Automatic annotation (TrEMBL):
EC assignment: 5.1.3.4
Xref: SMART domains: Aldolase_II
Protein name: L-ribulose-5-phosphate 4-epimerase
Keyword vocabulary terms for this entry: Metal-binding, Zinc
Organism: Deinococcus marmoris
One term of GO molecular function: aldehyde-lyase activity
InterPro entries noted in UniProt: Aldolase_class_II_sugar_metab, Aldolase_II/adducin_N, Aldolase_II/adducin_N_sf
């Protein structure tokens, strides 16, 4: 994919953030890895004002290479993650409300749904508090997610970071983490109202579900069963 196509794709993916209720005003951003750098949303621009051309190219030290606008204030975080995790091709950051409510409690989102076992391979982990602007957030994201099955982390008192092989994969994880954060929140409210416990899933069942989802489920090559 050339830079023009990637700019168009990244712009289209950014429009999915407000469409899925993950962002407010100018908060939230997506980046894509480039050869030796990254492409990211400009800082302080509303989603309605964004264009493919307004996306900013920086190197992996967050220094601008191409673009008239300043890059997102989270660019140092994205750059740090790309430097430390070569398998990552896309990153999403949001303050989506339910996931960020969990982050405000400093608690992981417990794995109580099969969809969580599928997508995250267990609880969505919660990283510690880190100041904004430098590389501390990136360091916390890498510390928790490197080697972890979850493509998503909630950061204490802040919000959500998700990673993927592509920006689309990272966006999917950002949509999914908000969806399960809402459902699990509702489950705990309902359980409290009914005087019952939220049911947990055993580690063995989580492993089985995650393996099935990542190895068998979907339209994978050579594993498709033709419809009769
Ligand atoms: Zn943030």
């Amino acid at each position: 994919m050339n830079h023009t196509e990637l700019r168009a794709e990244l712009h289209a993916l950014h429009l999915e953030l407000p469409r899925n209720g993950l962002v407010t005003w100018t908060s939230g951003n997506i980046s894509a890895r480039l050869d030796g750098g990254l492409l990211i949303k400009p800082s302080g621009v509303t989603f309605a004002e964004l264009t493919p051309e307004s996306m900013v190219v920086t190197d992996l030290n967050a220094q601008v290479i191409e673009g008239d606008l300043s890059p997102s204030s989270d660019t140092a975080t994205h750059a740090y993650v790309y430097r430390q995790m070569p398998e990552v091709g896309g990153i999403v950051h949001t303050h989506s409300p339910y996931a960020t409510a969990w982050a405000a409690t400093g608690q992981e989102i417990p794995c109580v749904l099969t969809a969580m076992a599928d997508e995250f391979g267990g609880p969505v982990p919660c990283g510690g508090f880190a100041p904004i602007g430098g590389e501390e957030i990136g360091a916390e994201v890498v510390r928790v997610l490197k080697g972890h099955r979850s493509p998503a982390i909630i950061l204490q008192s802040h919000g959500v970071f998700t990673i993927g092989k592509t920006p689309l994969a990272a966006l999917k994880a950002a949509v999914m983490v908000e969806d399960v954060a809402r459902t699990v929140f509702l489950a705990y409210q309902l359980a409290a109202a009914r005087g019952v416990e939220v049911q947990t899933i055993s580690p063995a069942d989580i492993d089985r579900l995650h393996h099935r989802y990542t190895h068998v489920y979907g339209q994978q090559q050579h594993q498709e069963t033709p419809c009769p």
